[in-house]
Task: structure prediction
Amino acid sequence: MKFLKLISAALVFLIVFGGCNKAQEDELPPGFDNNSGKEDSAAEETPYILRIPYDYDEGLSPYAAKSRTNRFICGLIYRSMIKLNSDYSYELDLLSDIGTEDNITWYLYVDGSLSFPDGTEFTAYDLRYSIQQAMAEGSYYASSLAVISSVGVVNASCCKVILKYADRYFPNLLTFPVISYETANRPLYFPGRYSLSQDKSSLVCSGDSAVQTIELVSATDQALLPYEMRTGRYDCIYWRSPTELGSSSTGGISGLQSNRMVYLGLNGSSAYTYYSDFRKAVAAAVDYSEITDDVYKNFAAAPRNIFNPDFYEMQYVSRKSLDLMSSNLLLDDLGFTKKDSDGFRLNSRGRRISLKLVVCSESETKVAVANAVAKMLGEVGIEVNVHSLSFSAYMVALQNYDYDMYVAEVEIGADMDISKLITPSEYRLDGMEYAGYGISNSENLYLTWLNFMSGTATPSEFSAAFAEVMPYVPLCYTKSCVVFSRDLPFSFSGTDFDMFYGIENWQK
Result:
């Protein structure tokens, strides 16, 4: 009987004091469990599920996926010949080496230690086949690979690529997926950082990333992504034009430096912009900081000479900056020393120097750029009249050379190829993309460009030749962005060409 009383007392003690302790635990803030910490440890170890948009109709074809969203996903599940770094340098991925002597003929060597998941041998025939698929009509990569003249196989370990012209940064273009020979309909490939789940609804991490699962949430209308982001449908989205996003309460925006250049086109046949010193005066009068900071709200960066400020070759080159003294001296030396009562310079016949600047009205930001440039040139006595035109009217104006200047944007490839802007008509190849409407065609500049791309001229030598001609004025390189939820526990390290760059190293 005494033994039973002891048992009963013990039970009462556990119920009373155990219950009190439980009540106290429930009142403690999360993370302050001083007894064991087991619940918090379990919470910290719970894999994070990231929700991103995915166009199920478009799918994940290695080469035909067009939307930026789906291409980013392809970049997670497929491996390529190289990995492109944020400074446009590269690291070998599926290759053991890349070689060239003249930057025209390139040799790609397979990594012989690798084989496809089913045991199929990895050879140069797979490289050739993948390049041909990436070059084919309908492929997203076709335009960037138009520089390729032919591709062949030297032996099972080496693929030979011959270019139409020298391209010292050609390896930067080898970012497309590699698949096994003749498997385009059912691609056999090397799994990347993530694998597609069997039901195709998510991606599963292949390594130790803090993001172990990426849920693919259906998205068919890219224009609705910001709205759907605000409703909580996704954890993060990519958006190309952050300055045109409008207000958002999603949580945050992280800029991604792109290789899209906004530039001031100068009509090489107009009365004033015909002269290189006048064009140089225009370039010197531009306040690049005002464009990047005020117009683009820091979602752009000033060029370093001509190129992207992130480009590793430009690391010791300063960004372009305003130089009103040089601008005024150049204009004075041209003989435009007299001014009217409004402070605008006069030509030899006593008429005000007035320029026509056209811009597409469909981009509010570019219209703001045009107005800013007009104001800047006014500071050195040049009157600029901005004509904001519909897209069709804008293109007609460009094609008819009905302008002195224009504001435009062009995407530069990862190989920094600006030949589409500076190639004289007599040097243009059939089917070659051209974007330099009215830009002064300088044979000397183009030949210096060819020497630069072949490796016989340095970046500084080409930059000097460009500055001497000043065929157009690089205004800024824009940034895209990642819009993310306020609840997202990561800091982004992505790039414009790989939103998930470095995802394996993301930290909470």
Observations:
- The CA atoms of residues 494 and 500 lie 5 Å apart.
- DSSP finds 13 helices and 17 strands in the chain.
